[in-house]
Amino acid sequence: MKYPAITATLAAATMAFGFSAPAHATGKMKCEAGPQSGWVSRDDLEADLVKKGWKVKKSKVDGGCYEVYGTTPEGDRVEAYFHPVSMEKLLVLRRGKELFRKQ
Q1: Which tens digits make up the pLDDT trace of 62-84?
Q2: The organism sits in which domain of life (predicted)?
Q3: Contact, 93 vs 82, CB < 8 A?
């Protein structure tokens, strides 16, 4: 390598930033769901969605809600938010466009 000190410094800085950066919620939906010990598991939510005809690509926690990326039974590729205790559908977005929002 031509500049090993610079490369090592950049690599260290990149790693430090990556490990210290906190996870941020997107702000699209927030759930006041209480402690996670009372939540339904993501696996159970995914299994329920599959029974209803969804194809689940991935899921994660965002803003205290479960955020699911997948395909609806109607064939729409979406990002959807579910309450982690009731598994109630709260928000469904397709390419940033709101398809459903619970009132």
Answers
A1: 999 999 999 999 999 999 999 99
A2: Bacteria
A3: no
Please identify which residue in the block is written with the tokens 């977005």.
93
At 32, is the secondary structure helix, strand, or coil? coil
pTM of the entire structure? 0.74
- The Cβ of residue 54 has, within 10 Å, a number of other Cβ atoms equal to 18
Question: How many angstroms separate the CA atoms of 70 and 40, rounded?
Answer: 19
pLDDT single digits (tens) 28-61: 889 999 999 999 999 999 999 999 999 999 999 9
**How many DSSP H helices and E strands does the chain contain?**
2, 5
Which helix H or strand E contains 41, and what residues bound it?
none
Question: What DSSP string runs through 37-57?
Answer: GGSPPHHHHHHHHHHTT-EEE
